[in-house]
Specification:
With 359 residues, this protein is an alpha/beta fold. Helices cover 42% and strands 20% of the residues. The structure holds nicotinamide-adenine-dinucleotide, 3-isopropylmalic acid and manganese (II) ion. Nicotinamide-adenine-dinucleotide binds next to helix 4. It comes from Marinicrinis sediminis.
């Protein structure tokens, strides 16, 4: 088998803890399926600021460019929260997405039946929920010009939100393509009643829609969508939206599954190259305690296998093993109904690996 190069950028807080478990899972698939990986690690985020003076060192970026796929943990923490923009871990994250051209962020939220009790929502509302948020990742207010200035009433801060038609077209096309592989329902989420970028977004969606006549399209205003996600989550299939709305709605969607510790993601460009990371952050409140849920990162590996490498059998095995372990009642603290019975990060990883070998 061809050796695939994996760039590993574990980052800060629980990042290294959950990435460790994901690597264990990948090594298990080498054993079980004859896959072959070469792992290379790079400094990224807060730890890179401390050791190299920048959140995205050039050698880390080069390593990612040379790799076939990137596995990322999380970045950030209180230590760097008051730093200027250039010396923030989050700036490294935005930089790597932009530099690698990863404009499309796929965030699936699937409700495991056995985890319904872990959600704060009622089981009858959650039943059958299986949706994907397709989030635009390299444009919008995150990347527009930002500055401070003196205004008449004192200091002002400005964030600009810009989208060009090409940026909207490519993400909308990807979302239609994703919808075609699923139940063929697409909700485009915007704030077209107020924002000019949203009006361009909606016009573009409507122009592309006739290319996909089989897809049932609805436009939903973002505030209404935030509400509908809790009212009728199972009626959504694919949600496509701009960068900041997608950030917020995907964390909301996480709670449908029981925990943000369950949500995986893939960041893609035009080709099959991708960066894979959990949706959650560095969780400073639980970092170093060995109690973080590694499932989001482990499920991100399954996404990597499907979307970058086409290793579907191995991806199936990982997803089945996760389900099997959850069905057997094993829980990390974030999804535990009885926290006194919660297991730790490495125990969860070990159980998943054991289930992979036995199924
Ligand atoms: P967070 O996602 O790190 O944590 C939110 C809450 O969820 C916390 O209570 C945390 O303990 C819990 N949580 C998150 N992941 C978990 C897991 N795997 N298992 C169990 N519990 C989990 O969000 P935050 O607290 O708003 O941000 C913390 C830092 O992370 C900030 O510096 C932020 O900028 C950064 N962040 C980074 C990323 C990323 O690297 N992709 C994403 C989000 C936030
Ligand atoms: C995410 C995170 C990042 C984002 C932050 C840390 C910059 O919240 O990946 O969802 O907003 O994109
Ligand atoms: Mn986020």
């Amino acid at each position: 088998t061809e050796v695939k190069k994996i760039a590993v950028i574990a980052g800060d807080g629980i990042g290294p803890e959950v990435v460790n478990e994901a690597i264990k899972v990948m090594k298990k698939t080498e054993e079980l399926f004859g896959l072959r990986f070469e792992f290379e690690e790079g400094l990224f985020g807060g730890i890179a600021i401390d050791e190299k003076g920048t959140p995205l060192p050039a050698d880390t970026l080069d390593m990612c460019k040379r790799a076939d796929a990137v596995l990322l943990g999380a970045v950030g923490g209180p230590k760097w929260d008051n730093n200027s923009k250039e010396l923030r871990p989050e700036t490294g994250l935005l930089g790597i997405r932009k530099e690698l051209g990863l404009f499309s962020n796929i965030r699936p939220a699937v409700v495991f039946d056995c985890l319904m009790e872990a959600s704060t929502l009622k089981p009858e509302v959650l039943e059958g929920t299986d949706l994907i948020v397709v989030r635009e990742l390299t444009g919008g207010i995150y990347f527009g010009e930002k500055f401070r200035r003196q205004g008449e009433a004192g200091e002002e801060a400005v964030d600009t939100c810009v989208y060009n038609v090409t940026e909207v077209e490519r993400i909308v096309r990807q979302a239609f393509e994703v919808a075609m592989t699923r139940s063929k329902r697409l909700a485009s989420v915007d704030k077209a009643n107020v924002l000019e970028t949203s009006r361009l977004w909606r016009e573009t969606v409507n122009r592309i829609a006739p290319e996909y006549p089989e897809v049932e399209l609805e436009h939903v205003l973002v505030d209404n969508c935030a509400m509908q996600l809790l009212r009728r989550p199972s009626s959504f299939d694919v949600i496509v939206t701009e960068n900041m709305f997608g950030d917020i709605l995907s964390d909301e969607a996480a709670m449908l599954t029981g925990s943000i510790g369950m949500l995986s993601s893939a960041s893609l460009g035009e080709g099959s190259y991708g960066l894979y990371e959990p949706v959650h952050g560095s969780a400073p409140d639980i970092a170093g305690k060995g109690i973080a849920n590694p499932i989001a990162t482990i499920l991100s590996v399954a996404l990597m296998y499907r979307l970058t490498f086409g290793y579907h059998e191995a991806a199936d095995r990982i997803e089945q093993a996760v389900k099997q372990v959850l069905d057997a009642g094993h829980r990390t603290g974030d999804i535990a109904v009885d926290p006194s019975k919660a297991i730790g990060t490495t125990e969860m990883g070990d159980l998943i690996i054991a289930a992979m070998a036995s199924s």
